[in-house]
Amino acid sequence: MTDPNEPSADGQRSASPALPPGPLRLGVIGDPVGHSLSPALHGAALRALGLDATYVRWHTPAAELPARVASLRAPDVLGANVTVPHKQAVMALLDTVSPLARRAGAVNTVVHRDGRLSGDNTDVAGFSLALTEARADIAGRAALVLGAGGAARAVVLALEGLAVASITVANRDPERARRLAADLAPTPVRVVGTDATTLAGEVARCSLLVNATAAGWHADETPLPLDLLDCLGGDAVVYDLTYRDTALLAAARARGLAAADGLGMLVHQGARALELWTGRLAPVAAMRAAAEQARDGGGTGASASDRDRATTG
Q1: How many other C-beta atoms are found inside a 10 Å radius of the C-beta of residue 274?
Q2: Dihedrals phi, psi of 43, to nearest 5 degrees
């Protein structure tokens, strides 16, 4: 596997593994998956690479997960993405799981090779690449992460790799946040509540604010009172894992702050997954264009965060 912070590019690896003869199959496993943008971005990538393969939605209730995972061992299947609610349950059904996925506590990518299934997590790399794409000067910033679910875990691990000065996780359920901090040790994570006074103080001391909650899925939802953005310094960065424009992002831009949504994370995690399946460098530009078209044309407000839990959407 390549360095998780190494950007993908158009083209082909010099040592691509031999793929089975086509047609080949890929898909996204979850419940629900009807909103997923992954078929659009991966379909565009497969066409750009000239691969005889398709990528579809595999709606899979929990009771059907073992059978669905077993079906990935078929010779014509390269692998799958995994989204809510199966990113943890799938781990026990695989032959191997990468150290990063074990640390994150979630698998969002399954790779099939010669009858064996391996699990990995591309959300960490996806967020890292998307964040530095939005703003290069991330190292040394004080980060405040809103939320303590699966997406927040990926965000925290990515921030650790980006050498931020500090990581604080704010969550309305303190016990859930404490579990995150304990599970990700020795990564130093401060845990705070979400009452107005605490949030005001934490927002004032941070220079990177990340929304890893589902708040923003609906247009009138915000993860915190928007007037707290007045506490941010002028060079602060606001990142919302929801992969469309949100009230939080609009309010940040209105204050002159750098702001980005989660579409870049969705694209980059998908690009890394594609590279694991095929051994080829992902056509990121084609994937981004397809994702934007599907998002803007399809009316979905899906989230690369805990709504879709996994930034696989």
Answers
A1: 30
A2: -60, -45
C-alpha triplet 97, 100, 104: angle, nearest 5°: 100
Q: Quick check: 272 and 111 in contact, CB under 8 A?
A: no
pLDDT exceeds 60 at position 1 = no
Q: Would you give the end-to-end CA distance of the chain in angstroms?
A: 22
d(CA 25, CA 53): 5
Domains present along the chain, CATH in parentheses:
24-122+266-298 (3.40.50.10860), 125-263 (3.40.50.720)
Q: Give SS3 for 128.
A: helix
Return the H-helix or E-strand segment holding 249.
helix 247-254
Can you give the pTM of this predicted structure?
A: 0.90
Q: Tell me if 139 sits within 8 A of 151, measured CB to CB.
A: no
Is the pLDDT at 46 greater than 90? The verdict is yes
Cβ atoms < 10 Å from Cβ of 163: 10
8 A C-beta contact, residue 121 and residue 310 = no
Active site amino acids: 87
